[in-house]
């Protein structure tokens, strides 16, 4: 249920996809090598767009609809299991 | 009419406001000490230490943080309070605009004081009036009793769902904050009935919202338009709340403006704040001398009570506006507002700038100005140096 915000009080209602498919902005795509991944979850914590979910087996999964390809996950990954693959020619 | 025997106390202004705050039961307070407000903070701390007031008093490192912290608490549904003065109010300014724009219900008491430079701790209205466009309701007390009454009323007005605006209650530094007066206080139970706990709460974990969002040019102006509408609605709500308070307290509250002997007056002073009392003495003396003088005291500066002022002043022979603040390069702030309100009427408006930086103003100063006006010897703007 939406709470009643009085008229004229400025609030935002952040919703998934409210800015469209922001994944389209991506130049480089992070690709996880699950053979190297140690399930440490640092990428999940660091993702500034909250687009990395944990699967039931605790491996991370990137939502490419909204991942903007910033590369933070690849930078923080201790075993270097994430490759940034250029998508735009 | 049954004469009520009220509890009567002798309190300095700061302690009277602290007493009103205690009775209003805010849950979160954040105050940074600054002269001449500090003794209010000290009194509130005592109330919390002795468990007379059950509240969280956040120790902050600045006025900016003080307002920022109660801003968050207010959004979470708490009743909140802060107080400051002069440089502290200026340091708080960025958050003042945030609170106004976000429409956060809160009450801030401002012990008015001059602004540096030159450094001054004495009273004038320059700090208070510099916040006139920040989307805050601004009220100003004439004496310690009004400061007490207005503090309790301010919470009610601020939290009214037709309004939802922060309220600033100004009262003159030292002249009221440090002067002891006999005041009548309400019983705790009466304040509880007048001021029920806050209903409105923006935080709901099942439905998250973002506070402090960006607004595109398409939306921004609409929020400001709504704020303007809320200010207009506040006029009626303020009158309503003050009338209800009048019934409970048995003391006249006067609403947005107080008219002192101005119904049959030809010449009228317009004032705001503590020196209205001195002005009343001057009016009485002038009346004894056969001069048809009166006083219109502005109790609420924002929203500006244009309709009331127009009603009282439109047929006056002369209006003298006394300002304790100045818009440099323009004119007396209250004088400019009165002139704008009386646009279209043939009423001469004179501006007198006095009392800035605490310079003493006495009834005889008011008398002299009106005598000069009658003798056709008063300039459009006069500074009492």
From TrEMBL, chain A:
Q: Which cofactor does it need?
A: [4Fe-4S] cluster
Name of this protein: Pyruvate ferredoxin/flavodoxin oxidoreductase, delta subunit
Pfam families this protein is in?
Fer4_21
Please tell me the species this chain comes from: Saccharolobus islandicus (strain L.S.2.15 / Lassen #1)
Record's keyword terms, sorted: 4Fe-4S, Electron transport, Iron, Iron-sulfur, Metal-binding, Pyruvate, Repeat, Transport
Do you know which PROSITE patterns this protein is assigned to?
Answer: 4FE4S_FER_1, 4FE4S_FER_2
Q: Which residues form the 4Fe-4S ferredoxin-type domain?
A: 28-57, 58-87
Molecular function via GO: 4 iron, 4 sulfur cluster binding; metal ion binding; oxidoreductase activity, acting on the aldehyde or oxo group of donors, iron-sulfur protein as acceptor
From TrEMBL, chain B:
- Which EC class is the enzyme in? oxidoreductase
Question: What Enzyme Commission number does this protein have?
Answer: 1.2.7.11
- Catalytically driven reaction(s): a 2-oxocarboxylate + 2 oxidized [2Fe-2S]-[ferredoxin] + CoA = an acyl-CoA + 2 reduced [2Fe-2S]-[ferredoxin] + CO2 + H(+)
Instruction: Specify the Pyruvate flavodoxin/ferredoxin oxidoreductase pyrimidine binding domain's residue ranges.
Output: 20-242
Query: One Pfam match, by short name?
Result: POR_N
The record's section on InterPro entries has:
PFOR_II (IPR033412), Pyruvate:ferred/Flavod_OxRd (IPR050722), Pyrv_Fd/Flavodoxin_OxRdtase_N (IPR002880), THDP-binding (IPR029061), Transketo_C/PFOR_II (IPR009014)
> What are the alphabetically sorted keywords of the record?
Oxidoreductase, Pyruvate
Q: Which GO terms describe its biological process?
A: response to oxidative stress
Q: What does this protein do?
A: Catalyzes the coenzyme A-dependent oxidative decarboxylation of different 2-oxoacids such as 2-oxoglutarate, pyruvate and 2-oxobutyrate to form their CoA derivatives.
Its assembly, as annotated, is:
Heterodimer composed of an alpha and a beta subunit. Heterotetramer of one alpha, one beta, one delta and one gamma chain.
Residue stretches making up the Pyruvate:ferredoxin oxidoreductase core domain: 265-365
Oxidoreductase listed as a keyword: yes
Q: Care to name a GO molecular-function term for this sequence?
A: pyruvate synthase activity
Name the SUPFAM superfamilies for this protein: Thiamin diphosphate-binding fold (THDP-binding), TK C-terminal domain-like
This chain belongs to which protein, by name?
Answer: 2-oxoacid oxidoreductase (ferredoxin)
């Amino acid at each position: 249920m939406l709470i009643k915000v009085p008229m004229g009080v400025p609030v935002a209602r952040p919703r998934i996809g409210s800015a469209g498919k922001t994944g389209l902005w991506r130049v480089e795509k992070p690709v996880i090598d699950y053979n190297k991944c140690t399930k440490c979850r640092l990428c999940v914590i660091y993702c500034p767009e909250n687009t990395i979910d944990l699967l039931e087996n605790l491996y991370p999964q990137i939502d490419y609809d909204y991942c903007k390809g910033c590369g933070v996950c690849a930078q923080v990954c201790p075993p270097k299991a994430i490759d940034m693959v250029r998508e735009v020619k | 009419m049954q004469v009520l025997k009220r509890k009567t106390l002798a309190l300095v202004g700061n302690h009277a406001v602290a007493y009103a705050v205690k009775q209003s039961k805010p849950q979160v307070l954040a105050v940074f000490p600054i002269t001449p407000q500090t003794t209010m903070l000290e009194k509130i701390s005592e109330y919390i230490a002795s468990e007379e007031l059950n509240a969280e008093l956040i120790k902050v490192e600045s006025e900016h943080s003080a307002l920022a912290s109660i801003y968050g608490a207010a959004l979470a549904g708490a009743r909140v309070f802060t107080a400051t003065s002069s440089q502290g109010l200026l340091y708080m300014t960025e958050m003042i605009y945030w609170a106004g724009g976000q429409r956060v219900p809160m009450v801030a008491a401002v012990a008015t004081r001059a602004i540096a430079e030159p450094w001054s701790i004495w009273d004038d209205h320059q700090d208070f009036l510099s916040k006139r466009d920040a989307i805050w309701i601004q009220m100003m007390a004439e004496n310690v009793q009004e400061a007490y009454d207005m503090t309790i009323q301010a919470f009610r007005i601020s939290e009214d769902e037709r309004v939802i605006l922060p309220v600033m209650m100004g009262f003159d530094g030292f002249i009221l904050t440090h002067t002891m007066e006999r005041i009548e206080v309400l019983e705790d139970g009466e304040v509880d009935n007048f001021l029920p706990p806050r209903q409105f709460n923006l935080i709901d974990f099942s439905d998250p919202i973002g506070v402090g969002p960006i607004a595109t040019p398409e939306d921004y102006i609409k929020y400001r338009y709504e704020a303007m509408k809320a200010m207009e609605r506040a006029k009626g709500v303020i009158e309503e709340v003050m009338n209800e308070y009048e019934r409970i307290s048995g003391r006249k509250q006067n609403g947005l403006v107080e008219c002192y002997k101005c119904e049959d007056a030809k010449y009228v002073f317009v004032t705001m704040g503590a020196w209205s009392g001195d002005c009343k003495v001057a009016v009485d003396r002038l009346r004894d001398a056969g001069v048809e003088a009166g006083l219109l005291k502005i109790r609420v500066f924002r929203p500006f009570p244009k309709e009331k002022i127009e009603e009282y002043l439109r047929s006056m022979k002369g209006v003298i506006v006394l300002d304790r603040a100045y818009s440099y390069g323009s004119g007396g702030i209250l004088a400019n507002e009165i002139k704008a309100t009386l646009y279209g009427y043939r009423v001469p408006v004179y501006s007198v700038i006095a009392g800035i930086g605490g310079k003493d103003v006495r009834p005889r100063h008011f008398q002299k100005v009106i005598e000069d006006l009658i003798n056709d010897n008063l300039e459009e703007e006069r500074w009492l140096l």
